[in-house]
Each structure stands twice: as C-alpha cells, then as structure tokens.
From TrEMBL:
PANTHER family the UniProt entry points to: BLL0215 PROTEIN
Native species: Allochromatium vinosum (strain ATCC 17899 / DSM 180 / NBRC 103801 / NCIMB 10441 / D)
Coiled coil: none
Protein name: Membrane-flanked domain protein
Domain YdbS-like PH: 79-154
Keywords annotated in UniProt: Membrane, Transmembrane, Transmembrane helix
TM stretches of this protein: 20-37, 58-77
InterPro entries linked: YdbS-like_PH
Length: 162
C-alpha cells in the first residue's frame, strides 16, 4: 500500500463559516422559542397576530428542524468528497450513493492553482484546481483544509511536472 501524503474531506466549518454559524444560531433560537416563546414574546404582539403558546412551540420546532436539516445536508455533502494524495497519484472520490472517482497520475500534473477568499485564508481552507494537458482543469476541489500543503506536496514529488 503506497504512503498517503494527504488525506482529507472538505471542511464544513471552513467551507461555510457564516452558514454554519447561522444554522447553529437558528437551532438555538428555535429551541429558545419552543421552550420559552410564550414568555419572551409580549402578550400584545401575540394577540395582534393571534399566536398562542402552542403555535410558538411549533414555530420554534420548525426553525430548529430547518436549521438542523440544512446543517446535516452540508455535513453529508462535505463527507461525500474525499481527496487522497500518494507519491504516485491523486485520487478524488465524490458521491454518496453513486461514486465518481478521478485518478490523476502525479507525473501528468502540469499546474496546481490554489484560490482562497479572505475568509478561506482566515480559516486555512481553499480551492484547488489541477491542470494536466490542455486548458481546462482536470480536477477542481473546493473547501479543502490547508491548500498550501497540497500544492507543496504535489510540487515536491520528483515525478511531477508542475
């Protein structure tokens, strides 16, 4: 079995820092509304919109369920993608029920492009684009942790052309 130089899934928190934080806050807010919504919403407002305590509980549970479902979808999406780098090849696996495998021989890599937004730089994440022969990328992976390490690993391989 070849030595594994890099092995990672895209990071949920690093890929979607604000979305993850918002989903967690919505989950907490939903729990708060479900448990004590009738105490924190003024009675005048409840009467004007005709909302009772039971309806507030259902709204809180709905907010919690929506945020939890969104966070779960993002997490599963991140976990279904996987990048593995060995001295000889790069293997990208994508999919949950049906799988897509992309194998790139290290010797055929011509260019490695790392793209990072400001927030990705803060979170030490980034997008990797690999070019072999031609002008279209062979592989594009978003939200990987420590993209600089990936670039250095690929460049350091003696069989690599990039």
């Amino acid at each position: 079995m070849p030595e594994i130089l890099y092995d990672a899934h895209p990071s949920l928190l690093r890929s979607r820092p604000f979305g993850t934080l918002l989903a967690i806050l919505l989950m907490l807010g939903g729990i708060l509304v479900a448990l004590v919504g009738d105490q924190i919403v003024p009675p005048e407002f409840r009467q004007s919109v005709q909302v009772d305590g039971r309806t507030l509980q259902m709204i809180g549970i709905g907010i919690f369920a929506f945020a939890t479902l969104q966070l779960l979808i993002w997490w599963v999406t991140a976990r279904t993608d996987h990048l593995e780098i060995t001295p000889d090849e790069i293997l990208w696996t994508h999919g949950l029920l049906s799988k897509q495998y992309t194998e790139i021989n290290m010797a055929s890599v011509r260019t490695v492009r790392v793209t990072q937004t400001l927030f990705q730089r803060i979170m030490n994440a980034g997008d990797i684009t690999l070019y072999t022969a031609g002008d279209t990328p062979e592989l594009m992976v978003c939200g990987l942790p420590d993209p600089g390490q990936i670039r250095e690993l690929i460049k350091a391989q003696p069989t690599s052309g990039g």
